[in-house]
Write a structure and sequence with these properties.
Strand order of the largest sheet: 2-1-4-3
Mean pLDDT: 83
Structural class: alpha+beta
Helix content: 40-55%
Strand content: 5-15%
Length: 288
């Protein structure tokens, strides 16, 4: 198998993870942010009398990781023979991982390049420490974004659809209205409509976007016992309002947990962006 073939295998993802962890460790170990560094090789430089050496250390921590991975895969503790097999597999993967790094294979595939960057972005985001917001900060955030936690007016309705808007369609709509008044089930009447006969929990703004402003006008105050003819951009509708849920203003106490999460997410995004800018500042970008 060629090294380019290996680069296309899932195993090469170890390259991405190793590169990211090395970069984060180097970044955190300095007072100022330094650019992530991917080791060019795991082979020590040879001298005139000393050949290059390569070393993979299997210490107690590595053995614990191998055993834990085997336990997750098998659903039970691995036997001694199974652990030996898992260790051999781990060594093979580690050798491939280090050889791939040494050859720079992670740079050959744009998919791997993107995944490394994506993983680095995730690690960078998770490394950001966001302080617990104060009550005052939460309330200020709530006031700035209170529309997020307000509840708009919602409507349930049933309709019978008639395609078209000409005289024939109008006459047919009148016949269907008489059938509805006589007690015919709406599901048995009208033309096929992509949304079906019944709509539940729909906001008026969403309905106006889907059907048009004329259809929505007066819908929330319509007599719930009546079948009312309404026009939309699709045709004619005979509409019965089944339920109206009034709008509710935002309540801080009820939304506090969501407000806190929203504040933390926004703060983390800001801090991650700042960390990204610090990383970029450590690099020289050349346009050629």
């Amino acid at each position: 198998m060629s090294w380019k073939s290996i680069a296309r295998e899932p195993l090469i993802h170890f390259v991405a993870i190793g590169a990211v962890l090395f970069a984060i460790d180097a970044w955190r170990s300095q007072d100022t942010v330094e650019p992530p560094v991917v080791p060019a090789s795991t082979t020590s430089a040879p001298s005139a009398t000393q050949p290059a050496t390569k070393s993979i250390v299997i210490d107690p921590d590595v053995r614990k990781q191998i055993a834990a991975a085997a336990q997750r895969r098998l659903g039970r503790d691995a036997s001694a023979a199974e652990l030996a097999t898992e260790t051999e597999r781990w060594i093979d993967e580690e050798v491939l991982y280090r050889e791939a790094l040494a050859r720079g294979l992670e740079r050959d595939d744009p998919v791997i390049h993107e995944r490394i960057a994506s993983r680095m972005s995730y690690v960078l985001s998770q490394s950001v420490i966001v302080p617990e917001p104060s009550e005052a900060e939460l309330r200020a955030w709530f006031e700035r974004h209170r529309d997020k936690w307000s509840v708009a007016e919602h409507v349930d309705f049933t309709h019978v659809f008639v395609a078209g808007s000409d005289v024939v369609a109008e006459a047919r709509a009148k016949e269907l209205a008489n059938a509805l008044i006589a007690g015919t089930a709406p599901e048995r009447l009208g033309d096929r409509f992509s949304g079906g006969h019944r709509y539940r929990g729909r906001k008026l703004t969403d309905l106006a976007e889907a059907f048009g402003a004329e259809f929505v006008d007066g819908l929330a105050t319509q007599d719930p016992r009546a079948w009312v003819r309404r026009r939309s951009r699709h045709g004619i509708h005979l509409v019965r309002v089944d339920r109206v849920d009034a709008a509710k203003g935002a309540d801080f106490a009820a939304a506090r947990l969501d407000v806190r999460k929203d504040w933390i997410d926004a703060r983390r995004a800001e801090e991650t962006l700042a960390a990204m800018r610090r990383l970029r500042a450590a690099w020289t970008i050349e346009q050629r």
